[in-house]
Every structure is written in C-alpha cells, then in structure tokens.
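hi support,

uploading two proteins for the ticket. first:
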Amino acid sequence: SSSSFLTVKTCRKYSQYGKMCAIICKCMIEPIGKESLMLGKKVKLCDMEGHPVANAIIMSLDKSKMVMDKSLGEEYFEVAILFVYKPNAPLFVKDNERKTVQDAVGSHIVWFIDFVELDDT
C-alpha cells in the first residue's frame, strides 16, 4: 500500500517528556523488503527541535537487534557517528560511557528513526 512508504513527511511525535514535537524531517520509511537500501547511508541526526547535531552512517535496521540495551524495533536505527555539529547535544539513549553525541563518536548507538534525516551532501 502507498502508506507503507514515504520519503518526506511531517513527523509529529510526543516526546518522552510529554510535549508535542512537530518537525519537518526526511523520515526514511522504506517499503518492507527494501529497508536494506538505507544500510550504509550517510544521515544527519537531529535533536528534538529538528536541528542537526551530528553526521552518522546507518549500521543496522534489524528490528530484533539489541544496541545499548534497546531492541531497534520500529523506533530506532543503529548508527555510527562520524562528525559532530553540537558536541554537547544529549543522546536520546544514554549509557555509563556515553551521554552526549561527542561521547559517542566512533561507536554504535541507537537514534530515533523520526529524528534521522538523509544527508544529501
């Protein structure tokens, strides 16, 4: 169905803090069977306001994979941060060693799918 894939949409999600976060982002929701097209793609990781905080590469879309004690499921991509725009920006999911995007450079983390934007540069 046409609702199974979109390339650009307005994301309206309730944040974990309960406030409405409405951002325009290029949310890559691929048709089932074509998810692997996102693997290895360069992306921008955005904060809750939709501002880019880092560049990363999509490492996994495997919904059953565990990263940072989280199952990727329908909510997360596994990403590897390459370059940081805002070093002190907090991670959505933190652990003992990684609290900010700067802490996560060179490691694999999870990032909410709705805050990942395809990097066209």
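and the second one:
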Amino acid sequence: MREKSKEQPQEQPEFLYEADEIKKAELLSIMMGYGESEKPEAVSHVLSQSDQKRDIIKAFIRYGESNPPEGPSMKVSAFAEDQELHQSIQSLPYTQKVLVLLTSFYPITDADAAAYIGISEEQVKVEKQEAYHTLAESTNTEQDQIPAMLTFLNKAYKKVPLTLQQQDFTAVDQAGSTSETKAKGKNWPAVTTAAVILLAGGLAFALNDPIPEETERTAAANEEREEEEEFIIPEEEIDVANQELENKKEELVVQLGLSAEEVNQLPVVEMAKGQLMHLEYLNEQNDPYYSNLSEEELRQEIDVIKDSALLSIAPPLSFLNPDLPMYNQWLPEKDLYTTSDVATAFFHDYAQSLRVVYEEKLNAQREEMAPWSRSYFKESELPEDERVLREKIRENGFDFEYDFDQNRFHVMIGGENFDTAIMSLDPVFQQVLNNLPELNLGIYGELHHSGTQSPDDHLKALLKIDENINFLHESSPDMSDPFTSSSFLFSSLNQFEMLFAQYISGSPEKMIFENGFLKEDVKQSWEKVLADESLKGKEIYKVVDFQYRLLKNNNFELLRGIENTSFLLYPDIRHWYHFNGNSTFVDFPLEHYHGKVYELYTTPENRNMLSVLQAEQIAMLYLNSIKMQDTEVLYSFFEPTDKLPSLEEFQTLVPPDILGKLELDRMNNIYVNSTGSNDSLSVNVEKNDGTMLIITMVKTDEGYKVKFTSDQMFNRY
C-alpha cells in the first residue's frame, strides 16, 4: 500500500476580490483606454479598497483623472468604425470622455453622472453635446448617428476577452504583519472609501469616492498619511450633527406616537441619515470642488446639508407651511404657487408612507381585544397606548374608521388638523390635497403593491391621480413646460404610469391572470371603466378598451408578453417621454401578445386603436408588415403627405415579392433613441447581423407614423 505523504497541504491563497468585480474593473479599464500592460496596475489600484461595497466606476473616474493611460489603447473590435470611435473617445477632454462612457455604456442618467463628476446636470448636457460634435468630426459622420455608433461599440466592448484572474490578486499572511495585496508581483496600498448619501427632493447620490494615492507608497505609509490628513469638516462637528439627528428622531417618536424602529423606517428619516453621511463622504473623498472653496463657501455648503437633514425630521403637517425656512432656502424669492408645489410634493410622499405605518399599527392584534371589538369601545375605555395612538393619528393630519367589510381599521389623510394646515397653500394645491389617492410608497416614491388592494382600489386611485394631473396641467402658470412649474405634476405622472401598468398589464407583484385566464375581478373592473361614459376620451378608457378588446378576442386567455407592455400616456402633457426599449429580442413574424395586436388592430376598422401605442411598438408592427408581405398594412404606417402615392400606386411599385427579398427574421433590440419632443423621434432597430436601422417617426392623430428610414427602403416611393 502506498504510504501517505507527510507533507502539509499548501495553504490556498486568499482571493481578495470576486471574479465579477475583477471583470467589471478590467472592462472599464479597457473602455478608458488603458493598454495591456497598464491594466493590472489600474485594476489593482481601484479594487484595493477597504469597504466591501466598492463603487468601481467612481474609483476609476478618480484614478483616471490623475493617472491617464500612457500607452496605446487596446484593440476592441475587428470593425474599423468601432476601433476608430473607441480611440476618438480617448482623445476627448477627460470630463467629456467620462460622460460618454457613463451615459452610453451604463444605466446612468445625466443627473447621476453629474453627481459622479461634481458638475451640474445642465453642464452635463452641454459637455455631452460638445463630445458628440467632436466624435462626429473625428469619425467623419453625422452627429445624430453617434448614439447608434456607441450602441455598436458597446456590443464590441462586451466581446473583448478579459484576461485578469482572481489568482492575480491574492493576500499572503505573514507573521507579525498584516496581509499585503499582490497584483502581478507588485504591492498596492489600500484606498479609503466614502459613504453613499441620499438627498431629498430628487437630489443626486454621492457614491463611493476613493482618494487617489501614489502607487509606490506602502500600506503602512498610507495609514500614517491618513492619520495626519486634515479633514475638510472637523469630525467633532459631524458627531454633533449626528447627535442632533438622534435627538430629533427621539422627538419625532413622541410627536408621531410610534416606536423608534418605526420612525427609523420612514423615508424622511432615511433621507436625513443619508444627507449627514454626506459630511463624512466629504472628508474621505477630498474632492477638489470642496477643498478649493473659501471658508465661507464651504461653511455655506455644510450648513445647507445639515439644515436640510435636520429640518426634515418633523411632523408631516409642518411641511405644509409654504413659508418654511427650508423652502425659502431651496427656493429664494419664489411665488406662493411654487412653494406650495414643493410643500405638497414633500408632504405627499411623507404622509403616504406614514399612513401605511399608522394603519398597520392600528390593526395590530392585541391579546385583550381584536380590532373589530376595539371599534365599539369609547376612546376613554381603551388602553392608554391605543388611546394615545389615535390622538397622534388625528394630531398629525389623519383620520380613521373601521371597515366592517374588510374587518380592519382604515387610516386616511385628512381631518380637522389637516384642513387647517392646507389653508396657507395656493388654492390649486388645496384642491389637489383634498383629492389624494391612497398609495403605498417606498423611500424613493416608488409604488409598492399591497395585498389588500383590489382592482377597483387601483381604479379609484388612478381616477384621482388622473383628475389631479389634468387639474395641475390646466392651472400651471407655464403651459409650455409644466415640469418647470410643478414638481408634483411630474411625480404624479410617474406614479400614474406605475400604478396603471399594474392595473392594465400586471407585474411581478400584481398578477392580473390566474390559471391562464384574466381574473374575474380585474375583468369586472375593466368593464366598469368601459361602461362609464364620463371616462371616454381619457387615457384610462382608451387603454382599457385596447386591452379588453384584445383579450376578449382571445377568450381572455393569458398572452405571453402582456406583462411587459406599456402605453403612451398623456402625450400632450408630457413634452418628452422616457423610453426603455421594448424587447431584447424580437422574432418575426410576431407571435403571442404582439402577434395578436397585429392581427386585430392593423385592420382598417381598428387602426385608430394603435394611437395608444409607443413608437417602439409601432416600429415592430411596421417591420412585421414587411415580413408578412402585407403592402396594405405597410402603407398604413407611412406618414400621410402629398408625396405619398395612393395605395394602388404603392402596391404596383412595391409588390409582395419585393418585400419577400428583405431579410427580416430577428431584431436584437428596438428602442427610442430620443428624449426630445414626442412629436418627432428616432427609433433604433438593431438587426441580428449587427447593423442598425434608424426609423424616424412622427406623431399624428392616428398615432406614430414612419417618416423615413436610414436604409431609404421606400424613400423613392
């Protein structure tokens, strides 16, 4: 028998980073122009952070600013156009280069990009336009083609071989010393990280922000440097602010009649904590913007952050005062309409979240009595904590009643104190606040589905939001751009969209089908809409009619893809629209949900129903008509102009056999590449062979129509 080896097994190296972290950092290093020999150093430096929650993108922004690539950038594509664009991006001014990378290859908005770099959102837009202009000149193409070219470049980036492995980044424990980081045989120092902060009212996030270090320093020297470093803000001041926050939270516990845990979960508290974390972030990130401020300017920045955080920890009704110092700080010399708008928006999200907390607390089970029995007691006969809770609910702008159908207490925004508080607001917002729906909102104002909500509950909320949207639009001082005058209108549009998607198409939280068929309560709710003459012409009616007819035509069976559908809502109120792309892959001919849409709604008698569809879906139907060799349907999608021939002439010029020669089996993606006016926009269609078709569409009374296409397929007709 073979003798067992007496050698001790070799200790496995400790991998410092997850494989996906390394891949993400390596890919970004390539996109930023670092060559093969420069990649390991750049990636190691960025990943060498003490905080587990690294922001690799933010780290690379700072690293690249002080350590630009020196050698030639890597080859990223076999296509000359992709490689030329990649190299052109590297030649941009650093800020423009970063903005192109962030907003083209990551799901990062202009507002988030502004926070990453430390400039205004307006400046982001200016810099991006200049970058696109420069890229167009350097690649000898039209500026409006740059976004499409960036799409192809993004696909090329994703195919670049990534060679760095976990074994390249290991830690070896040595006796009497801390673990050292090894990357390609070189040691790199630890990099400090900053906290994530959240600012209220749609302000930006400040994300992890490492301090660029000299790569030849040892870890010990780096620690000594940090000890000697003078912070932008004295740590004692941050400690005092945090203690003030704790004191304010303790006061809020008493003011609201909630537990400390319940108060900590309120969005206003989460936001305030995030704002004060920003002070610690400023100390760690050493951003030139702050370090270059005068003492007076820096003090003003710090005070704004502290005051906004601490002032927001207060009972909800206090925010209905349009003269609140916090609003004057944000909106100096603004009129009553504007301050009332901000007050309404701030109060709304706070009150909606607090209403849910109060309702859950009021319906909590007690050993001595159930909720239904408590409804019969005089308040003087209730236990002390229940009596106090009811007083606090009314005191803070709410009322309640017992719903015997649901066997639970129902808490509502309203009551005597609420009525008194809204009297100081502009009459427009008094009316809006008296017509609020009941929503379950998260910290960012996103909708949460409640299991107790029926389709009719959704409908009631939608109708109230619809009334408020139209009322705010009609009363807005600036009819040309309502978003400049009403932030509450903007949030109402978004909340309507989210709630309507649940009502009309379903979602992971709120399915509208059961056992393969439309739920009966959903069907009955839709039929109530269609039977209500007062709703005809409204977005709710038009889309319910569209969906109901389609499903009725298919025996109300579940159609695959229906849960991902979206509709064009309030096109005359929204002066721009966010499009997220329709589908990752689209096979032709269309099947399932969109196939049934094509079958039912491209007939002459039903085409007017297509006006509720977004431009991407019209583009899909247009391409499907080519695949189906249906010249009559194809013709119906063209913009009606004097140059368009008659249908008979078109069918003579474009017989079905010509359409049959066009290769049209699969599209990788269909998305709108424009955030400008809704009236005219560009739809990008990424073909399976990697080429791009761009369709310019215009909005008419009958919905979106095709104006022309980049392949000039039918231009001569």
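thanks. also noticed: Residues 586-709 form a domain with the Nuclear Transport Factor 2; Chain: A, fold (CATH 3.10.450).
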